[in-house]
Amino acid sequence: MRTSTTGRMGQYAALLAYLAFLAFPFLWLVSTAFKSPRELGSLHPTWIPRDPTLDNFRQAFDEQPLLRAAGNSLLAASAAAVIAVLIATPLAYVMARHRTRLAKAATGWVVVSQAFPLVLVIIPLFLVLKNLRLINSLAGLVLVYVVWALPFALWMLVGYVRAVPTELEEAAAVDGAGRLRTLVSVTAPLLAPGIVATALFAFITAWNEFFFALVLLKTSDKQTLPVVLTHFIGAEGVADLGPLAAAAFLATLPSLIIFAIIQRRVTGGMLAGAVKS
Fold this sequence. Notes:
Blueprint: H1 2-33, H2 37-40, H3 55-63, H4 66-97, H5 101-113, H6 118-131, H7 138-163, H8 166-174, H9 179-190, H10 192-208, H11 211-216, H12 225-229, H13 241-267
Helix pairs in contact: 1-13, 3-13, 4-7, 4-10, 5-7, 7-10, 8-9, 10-13
């Protein structure tokens, strides 16, 4: 009993340490966003600002087109998430239900493709988009985000599809439903938490992505929020710390809000209500 209690306390301690490790950068970012320039230059920084101010937020919006950049990021991330889910759902169903050698090879390729570094694929992608005349275009950026998110989306959804009992699909087939009708009316509703989690992954990945947007977007009116954040760093590498922290804080809010809204659906269990009455 004592060993079990000690082990559980150790697990809780490790969990608290991990949460503190994750929370520290965000809490420090929030603190920095509300500090005055004088306090930012202090040799004795504090967690809680002594004289909180909103000047950093005003300066951030005055210096850079944050709203336009946020709109570009929202458009690109939302479109990439929707398209990736629409493509991945039927493909994941086929890969999960038809376990052929080709399906196994495709699954293995999906996992291996995640190990490719961005630098390895950026030149071929740039040349392809150039031939398609999609350089400096949000449509081209969305295409890249879909291609980049699709392998992991497939890998996630295959696991969700395999967890759906095949007896439900067999019952639908007995009632006369075809493959497409079964996927749309029976399997897809049960995959709702998995689809939401996959869409969230694709959205957050595209929202936070920097490298592709930096290389593919040339004009300021097309740039996304992560790229615009770099404009708060001067030519000599000196960062305008207050406005940068304020803009970065605002950039993190959409991901946090979206996850807070849908986290119950993600963790609520994929097969809730799956029993056929």
